[in-house]
Amino acid sequence: MKVLRINAADTYHIRNLVLRPGRPIEDCYFEHDEDEQTFHLGAFIDSQLVSVASFYFEKNPKLEEEYQYRLRGMATLPEHRGQGLSSSLLKTAFPIIKQNFCQLLWCNARSSAQGFYQKVGFEKVGEEFDVPSIGPHFLMFKTIS
Asked: What is the pTM of this model?
């Protein structure tokens, strides 16, 4: 398994299959995908892209840190889950985020993925909320030391 930087367009297929199944691919084009401080990572097995995550320089007003990164669109193809790929993407991202003078990473985590995020050091903030047409989520964050 290898983790590499990828382009936003490289994430769309997996985002669509995993996060927005049956919806138009355009639903997987996220605002700020092409911003200068945004970066995207992909995990490859045998040269095939099987897991993706995107990181945006974006502040959540509910969190106090001045500079923050947001995790969005983390998705792994079903046949490759449970192999530590998402954890590897995050471990690769943490030093990049620190290089950008940020020590906080946050996300709107699907409620069904809350256990994964807690296992890799994220903390939950507040109550569960609904993202329209996607489902229940929690705001979660991790301090990167």
From this structure: 0.95
Q: Are 22 and 55 in contact (CB under 8 A)?
A: no
Alpha-carbon 86 to chain mean position: 9
Q: Pairing relation of β-strands 69-76 and 104-110?
A: parallel
Q: DSSP for the chain?
A: -EEEEE-HHHHHHHHHHHHSTTS-GGGG--TTTT-TT-EEEEEEETTEEEEEEEEEE---TTS--SS-EEEEEEEE-GGGTTSSHHHHHHHHHHHHHHHTT--EEEEEEEGGGHHHHHHTT-EEEEEEEEETTTEEEEEEEEE--
d(CA 66, CA 101): 10
Backbone φ and ψ of 89, nearest 5°: -60, -45
Half-sphere exposure of 107 (CA within 13 A, CB side): 21
Residues 58-72: tens digit of each pLDDT: 999 999 999 999 999
- Which residue is listed with tokens 């502040």? 59
Dihedral of CA atoms 33, 71, 54, 143 in degrees, nearest 10, equals: 120
